[in-house]
Design brief:
Helix content: 10-25%
Largest sheet: 5 strands, antiparallel
Low-confidence stretches: 1-38
Number of strands: 13
Number of domains: 1
Order of helices and strands: HEEEHEEEEEEEEEE
Shape: globular
Number of helices: 2
Structural class: mainly beta
Radius of gyration: 18 Å
Mean pLDDT: 85
Strand content: 35-45%
Strand order of the largest sheet: 1-13-12-11-6
């Protein structure tokens, strides 16, 4: 009985420390649904602890992935400038600083009350570039209190955009704010990270609404160019 309680406590503590959705341990593949691409909306299964998924605003979709613990592959992606954001569960990086050689960066848009549509222009200054951090890579030994992390560049303004607030019921809460992304090519987009669960209830599916300005200006009112 004591052993059972000890294991349960370890699982609980490891889940909290690692930001892990304990319900994800029992998620099934059928809960991760393939969603047809939509203009201005990214919906992608980012549930894997092992993979980074690379997104391009220019193409409007993912352009590839790599193992988060593959130093050579990550260095190749770091040198590329055809991606703008990368996703590893709720972790996000931009093509900047420690994560990439692009002109990227990100800032949280200042608003007293969140209104995505009201943001018509990207600021020209104030963008944070990525710094070295770490992400969870292996949870298989969590019951023994052993969680494996790997180093990675991360966009610090996006840390905590999705937080597990009710572990046993798999409830996540999200920052109600817009973020302005400076892309790898120095262009601009506004994003709203809406969700971290699939419509069927599986954690790990990122839903991001975005508006991308492809002409290089700070104008984000793309319906009135």
């Amino acid at each position: 009985m004591k052993t059972f309680i000890s294991v349960a406590i370890l699982i609980f503590c490891a889940a909290i420390i690692g930001g892990c959705d304990i319900n994800h341990l029992w998620d099934k593949d059928y809960l991760f649904e393939l969603v047809e691409p939509q203009d201005g909306v990214l919906v992608h299964d980012c549930s894997s602890y092992t993979d980074w998924h690379f997104f391009s605003f220019a193409t409007g979709g993912m352009i590839g992935s790599c193992d988060a613990n593959d130093a050579e592959a990550n260095e190749q992606w770091r040198k590329r400038t055809d991606w703008d954001l990368a996703f590893h569960r709720q972790n996000i990086k931009t093509n900047s600083g420690a994560s990439g050689t692009g002109l990227g960066g990100i800032l949280k848009y200042p608003q007293e009350a969140f209104n995505f549509d009201a943001i018509l222009e990207a600021p020209e200054e104030g963008y944070a570039t990525d710094v070295m951090d770490s992400v969870i890579y292996d949870m298989s030994q969590m019951a023994a209190g052993n969680i494996i992390y790997v180093p990675s560049g991360l966009a610090q303004p996006l840390k905590g955009w999705a937080v597990l607030t009710d572990m046993m019921n798999g409830v996540w809460t999200y920052v109600q704010a817009a973020f302005i992304v400076r892309t790898a090519g120095g262009k601009y987009a506004k994003v709203y990270l809406r969700n971290f669960k699939s419509s069927a209830g599986a954690s790990g599916t990122v839903t991001m609404q975005y508006v991308y300005q492809d002409d290089g200006t700070v104008n984000l009112d793309i319906n009135n160019k």
